[in-house]
Amino acid sequence: MILHASCVAHCGRGLLILGPSGAGKSTLALAMMALGASLVADDRTLLHGEAGRIMADCPPTIRGRIEARGVGILKAQACGPVELALAVDLGQAEPERLPPLRRFDTSLGTLPLVLGAGRVHLASILLQYLDAGRADTELDDGE
């Protein structure tokens, strides 16, 4: 399956970047790469199932390439395939301060989903999510 999406990896975990054309998928991928993530795919991401996992890779024709709007196509060290751990949708804004666990469903399985449209510092937030996960307990007043 090929999705109109970009994908980066951090700490061996993949992030699927979704959103409409012009939403900033490549820009977010570049920001995350500047903070240490690796490029898996830009603009088109191949998904396949492997032993119950959702794997992401890049079509060979665009491997190691990412579009920088207004600059051109840049070369990048490519990685992948990688197991997906998370998806972000740049076409939807998160209305809640502490949102419920959201899900992105594919025919290959389900991923946790972050709604990211308009979110400031999204690259660093998503890197931390990939690195350490999300605490799903309510905060005490003292925290």
Automatic annotation (TrEMBL):
<dbReference type="InterPro" id="IPR011104">
    <property type="entry name" value="Hpr_kin/Pase_C"/>
</dbReference>
<feature type="domain" description="HPr kinase/phosphorylase C-terminal">
    <location>
        <begin position="3"/>
        <end position="77"/>
    </location>
</feature>
<dbReference type="InterPro" id="IPR027417">
    <property type="entry name" value="P-loop_NTPase"/>
</dbReference>
<keyword id="KW-0418">Kinase</keyword>
<dbReference type="Pfam" id="PF07475">
    <property type="entry name" value="Hpr_kinase_C"/>
</dbReference>
<dbReference type="GO" id="GO:0005524">
    <property type="term" value="F:ATP binding"/>
</dbReference>
<dbReference type="GO" id="GO:0006109">
    <property type="term" value="P:regulation of carbohydrate metabolic process"/>
</dbReference>
<protein>
    <submittedName>
        <fullName>Hpr(Ser) kinase/phosphatase</fullName>
    </submittedName>
</protein>
<dbReference type="GO" id="GO:0000155">
    <property type="term" value="F:phosphorelay sensor kinase activity"/>
</dbReference>
<keyword id="KW-0808">Transferase</keyword>
